[in-house]
Amino acid sequence: MERPQFEAWLDSVSASFVSLSDAQRNASLDRLISLSGASQLRHLSNGLEALVKRDFVRLLPLELSFYLLRWLDPETLLTCCLVCKTWNKVISSCTEVWQGVCSDLGWRIDESIQEAPAHSEAPLVQAPRAEAAHAEAPRAEAAHAVGPRAEAAHAQGPRAAAAHAEAPRAEAAHAEAPRAEAAHAEGPRAEAAHAQGPRAEAAHAEGPRAEAAHAEGPRAEAAHAEGPRAEAAHAEGPRAEAAHAQGPRAEAAHAEGPRAEAAHARGPRAEAAHAQGPRAEAAHAEAPHWKAAHAEAPRAEAAHAEAPRAEAAHGEAPHWKAAHGEAPHWKAAHGEAPHWKAAHGEAPHWKAVYLKARRRMTQLREQRAFETSSLIGHSARVYALYYRDGLLCTGSDDLSAKLWDVRTGQCVYGIQTHTCATVKFDETKLVTGSFDNTVACWEWSTGAKIQQFRGHTGAVFSVDYNDGLDILVSGSADFTVKVWALTAGVCLNTLTGHTEWVTKVILQQSEVESVAHSPGDYILLSADKYEIKVWPLGREINCVCLKTLCVSADRSVSLQPRLQFDGRHIVCSSDLGVYQWDFASFEVLRVIKVQDPANLSLLSFGEVFALLFDNHFLYVMDLRTEAISGRWPLPAYRKSKRGSSFLPGGTAWLHGLDGRNDSGLVFATSMPDHSIHLVLWKENG
User: Fold this and answer.
1) Rounded alpha-carbon distances, angstroms, from residue 561 to 29, 558, 578
2) Please, which residues bridge with residue 391 across strands?
3) Nearest by Cα to 506 from 544, 471, 479
4) Residue 255 neighbours by CB under 8 Å, 6+ apart
5) Does domain 56-125+352-359 have CATH number 1.10.155?
6) DSSP characters for 276-313?
7) Mean pLDDT value across the chain
8) If 0-12 CB within 10 Å is exposed, 13-18 middle and 19+ buried, where does residue 685 land?
9) Which stretch of 88-97, 135-144, 450-459 has the lowest confidence by average pLDDT?
10) Which of 162-166, 414-418, 629-633, 635-639 has the lowest mean pLDDT?
């Protein structure tokens, strides 16, 4: 078939093919493939490979790759990491994506996590942008290596950077000739003209043609500046251009082939030959350790440019680190500090963080996150518990109080006391409220009673104190709250207004501004079965409370015996659910309805999670969805109505897990056999 006829036939077939449905097009292609021979199939394969097998992750700019990755779920991202090393590096370095999915799992993202030790995840965290900066942007890297002058040239644009990087005689001019310093002082263009020699100055004087060469890039400008021979070398490719830049010997080596070039590179002019290639400006490095890195470890540099082990090669040499961006000016010159940090392992590997977070959440869901232990030592019922910094204090009917190391299960201190209804301690002392209507202060080291507070006419169910204010507060079964001088033991004030046992008192600084208080003001909260009262901390006799909070005005709904106040919010559970009030306005922010609110009690409330429990299970609730993330079975324990015989452990994880705060005590409660049942975090491994 003649060409005109073939083209007419091809146009006709194409027009018909476009008008077909997808199914008809597929059938047509199947027929054509079945009729094709080896030559046609090979042609089809070559054409399809460019269209179907194109690696968009490798070809797209990193910003676009990251944007697309944000649309994928974590499971798909992990699958994509298995495709190839390049995909794994791109996906692993997409910090924002992994931080987002970690946050969705309840992981806390803060500055302390981002400051990880250098090279902590170096084999996995290799950002392509940082690698590309080494492989494709030698001018910026060399500008940093040469020192402040080269860096300044790089910052001023390609012309200044190229000018600084030209021929060896430019280096000599900088090092030996006063004229070099004068040219540098006059500005980047004068320095460029001087660095390239008389021919560069002539090129600069030619005007538009030189400017056109400059527009094509630093290499074209340099080729134009040095004459026809250089332009020819530029046209032949980077190797020919590098050979021209090195002089006649290098050109001869280039003409003879790779072996001659290699021989030339190993000779006395090896450093110069190395300097004129992609890392040309590195030869100007004024720091001896940079030259040492190039002269003594060429294999490491080659590995850095062409193989994954490159990062390890350059990461282990201290002088390489110094040359590659731990100085502030590197960050300024490149403007890509986060990617560079990711490539060098100075930021956490967020894919690994996500995997750890997912494993922990799976353990919670499958009841594998915790383990149990017991503390045995008391001979009568344990009514009072208080936890702080890995230490648990227990007060018992056996007229003793004990301090336990939760991690080891060992008793650190044991002192003889009165019957304890509530306890609170610090490093030196223990404060106890008793069923004998008194409050006492004990010294741990000697076991001696150093102060006693008398005045209540009922059992003391709750105490709190502040050493800085020298104040102790107590709530009692006599319906009153008393304020005491901590060191003197003198009652400063008695607050009345409760009509039930005062089962909880909290002394805490306000963190918000309102009509009644300012940030930093100390506030006293007290709770009974139906009400929460907010008091000013003053010495006014019979002072009136600032606010009374309740769930129902007719007292038809009871509060559970747990109260939490962090200076911003008041949280308490009730027979209707968990209530959260804003402390600035005293408005109800949210009510979390639970399945069995009468039996489900609040242990602690955070920004991300809440810890609750009932007669059979310990529950972890995700407050963002109000769904139960996990639960843990509990034995038959003694659940006091005052809430003093059970407590949460460390609560920092309730504001978001971070891989470090999910350890230690989660929950403790007294048992009918006088032991203490502990629920502890199991190691996340």
Assistant:
1) 75, 9, 12
2) 388, 405
3) 471
4) 243
5) no
6) TSTTGGGGG--SHHHHHHHHH-HHHHHHHHHSTTHHHH
7) 73
8) exposed
9) 135-144
10) 162-166
Superfamily of domain 367-681: YVTN repeat-like/Quinoprotein amine dehydrogenase (2.130.10.10)
Residue extent(s) of CATH 2.130.10.10 domains in the chain? 367-681
What pLDDT, on a 0 to 100 scale, did the predictor assign at position 536?
84
Residue 120: its pLDDT value, please? 37
Residue 106, token pair as written in the block: 């309840």
In the numeric block, the tokens 């402040």 are attached to 148
The whole-angstrom separation of Cα 142 and Cα 151 is 8
Q: Which residues contact 23 (CB under 8 A, 6 or more apart)?
A: none
Within the chain, all domains assigned CATH 1.20.1280 are found at 56-125+352-359
Continuous segment of H or E residues that includes residue 70: none
How many Cβ atoms from other residues are within 10 Å of residue 153's Cβ? 27
Gap between the Cα atoms of 349 and 355, Å rounded: 10
**Distance (Å, whole) CA 386 – CA 510:** 23
Rounded CA-CA distance 682/372 in Å is: 9
For 61-94, where are the alpha helices, taking DSSP H only?
62-69, 74-80, 85-92
Q: What is the pLDDT of residues 160-169, one digit of tens each?
A: 333 343 433 4
Q: How many CA atoms lie within 13 A of 357 on its CB side?
A: 23
Handedness of CA 349, 351, 354, 359 (dihedral sign): negative
Using alpha carbons only, give the angle 602, 604, 610 rounded to the nearest 5 degrees.
85
Query: Which pLDDT score is estimated for 417?
Result: 95
Residues 6+ apart with CB under 8 A from 211: none
